[in-house]
Amino acid sequence: MGCGESKHGDVTPSKQVDDELEECRRNSHYHSKVLLLGAGESGKSTFGKQLKMLAKGKLSVAEMALYRRGETAAQRFGVSRCAAGAVC
Predict the structure, then answer these.
(1) Residues of the domain holding 62
(2) Is 68 exposed, middle or buried (0-12, 13-18, 19+ CB in 10 A)?
(3) Which of 21, 37, 39, 59 is at a distance of 20 to 30 A from 79, taking alpha carbons?
(4) Is 32 inside any structural domain?
């Protein structure tokens, strides 16, 4: 700090950050986010599953097991209907 010159070592972290940001920009066109809003039982999870199957071509064994059991995304992440604001 101060009025003196920067040391060469100070430039290296900045260069690394710049390189990481550039890599993220190059790869950003591969990622999309979708926000599905709707009432319960309106097909949001089904739509998400269909998008995933279209993008990946198939589901993993673990995902198929979850879907066979009928487990919802809320249950997977530990959110109960009571916690979400429903009357229990």
Answers:
(1) 8-76
(2) exposed
(3) 59
(4) yes
